[in-house]
Amino acid sequence: MKNLTFPNPVKREFYYKQYDESLKHWNIEIETLYIETTFGKTHVIACGPKDAQPVVLLHGMTVSSTMWFANAPVWSQSYRIYAIDTIGDFGKSECIRPVTTRPELNSWLNEVLDALNIEVFYLIGHSMGGWIALQFSLQSDRVKKLVLLAPVMSLSGLNWRFPFKLLPATLLKNSYSIRKLYEWMFAKQNTPSPLLYKQFLAGYKLGKIQLKVAPTVMKEAELKGLRPETLVLIGEEEVIYSSVQKAIKRADEAPNMTVHLIPACSHCLPAEQSYMVNDLVNQFLAER
């Protein structure tokens, strides 16, 4: 079956080379797995002790699992890490059928977890991966603890500037627009990784997103009904939300959510403030 995300084999191989270069950032021993699902083969990066508690990582839209380069090497000292390339998004997963609904998205993730023999686990998601993790946790008993890193929508609507950054990059596919989108998601004082940018650029220029599920702002009843204990981390200079204050207030009001504002960073906080993010996540997961 054709890989719909990267249908051209030459372009796909070029993107995969950029992916592999980005993955060198991890600088630890890893395993790579392919899981057969209804929607195509799902690529998973695994690391850490095989007998340790499992932690599943869901990346932000268009950045793939390579984005965890500053986090997975730290968390894998205590946990078995499974970084999943979301099907239909840029990455090494091979989508053969677009994902168009939340039930399909959850069905895909359950298929991956079943194949990995993961029953109960800690779940960490960034941006779109945070929204996927949150909505999955609302209907699943498998999530022991949940960590949301700047989850897109979820707690507040989008900043009106976001479409004006995203649409030129996705429609025009020119280097200038893609670079502006990439840099916009970092605080001005923080320098994005040139290596990851090359992969980001290749994805936008060569790939076709097949994840057709739009994130939403969660209702009050949903947030109040969230069962897993949840840690929410948001950058002080976050640009995705229409209101950072509203997002924090809504997280504060949810009974099972604890929220922290992370200084000197924006949307890409796992890389921008990796030491603080890593410490807060490790502390949260270790608490009884």
From TrEMBL:
Keyword check for Hydrolase: yes
Superkingdom field: Bacteria
GO molecular function (one): hydrolase activity
SUPFAM superfamilies: alpha/beta-Hydrolases
Statement: the UniProt record of this protein carries the keyword Hydrolase: yes
InterPro entries named in the record: AB_hydrolase_1, AB_hydrolase_fold, AB_hydrolase_sf
Keywords, comma-separated and alphabetical: Hydrolase
Domain AB hydrolase-1 intervals: 54-171
Pfam family, one: Abhydrolase_1
Name of the molecule in the record: Alpha/beta hydrolase
Lineage, top ranks: Bacteria, Bacillati, Bacillota, Bacilli, Bacillales
